Amino acid sequence: MTQPGCCGFLVPGDLETRTGGYTYDRHIVAGLRALGWEVEVQSLGEGFPSPDATALAQATRVVDALPDGALAVVDGLAFGVLPELVQRHAKRLFWVALVHHPLALETGLDADRQRVLFDSERRALAHARGVIVTSPSTARALAEFDVEAGRIAVIEPGTAPAPLAAGSSSEGLSLLCVATVTPRKGHALLVEALAGLKDRPWVLHCAGSLVMDAACASALREAIDDHGLQARVLLHGEQDEASLRALHAKADAFVLPSFHEGYGMALAEALAHGLPVISTRAGAIPDTVPEEAGLLVAPGSVPELRAALQRLMDDSAARARLAAGARSARARLPDWAQSSQRFATALAAFARQAGRWP
After folding, report:
1. Which of 47, 76, 89, 139 is most deeply packed, by most CB within 10 A?
2. Are residues 289 and 345 in the same domain?
3. 352: pLDDT confidence band, cut at 50, 70 and 90?
């Protein structure tokens, strides 16, 4: 058992935001506290990873007020764009970066913005005493950022136990996609792929924020209208836990054609409900979704995505095999208590390496 310690946990925006990254942060904070750690959560301001002057001023105030020698865990959505602030306090504070996925890998960035984010995150990570990532895939990606393997700890998210989905009990398939509507999640590709399968009975339920990227959500609604799928692609917006459980319970399969995932918590949650998965081979997804539980296609490929969806719809035996694979995979998913203990152990190991732990 790791000796309890204390740390600051610095997050961009509101810790209660309903995305995978914030969900991870919330569970880890709660888990550390359950282990006896003193954890002070502070917001660095809104708008990251593109903070305005107000957010930068708030981040500066928060960091300036941290006591000398403090262990500060910082969510990578903010850490990667604060290289000057991180460097200024590198000798005074014990920085630990929590990288869900590198910022430059976000979908929809132009080449100049990618270069700026890459350079910014590389410079910030140079001053981290430790870096916690949520998958082996992200750990490998950080080699390009000059982060040595000895400074990295892989702490995969936990997954809450969930009942097996009962399914839709209807002739057509009920497909579920749980993801904030942003370009990286691939909703537009999913609609385009499904538009070629109108002759088959199916309905797609999409749960996830429609306001975090209003332009992307507007384009998605337009695509749904253009294909005449208003009655078959249902945008539910952000849902609470009870509503998500209800959507999972009535689903027959889970679909997420993401262009990149640092882990894919929504995919793990689908496996926890025993749902067969259609996703992509991007980022950490092949690590999260085992071959026996899902069909993984090339990111961005509408023909491959449509073919996988068609197979799921037409081949009930294959669908049953994938569901059985998902049920097997659910038994191997770590829980949040295990993830929190590993997180605490990693923090202690980083501190010991620096001679700051008994």
Report:
1. 76
2. no
3. confident
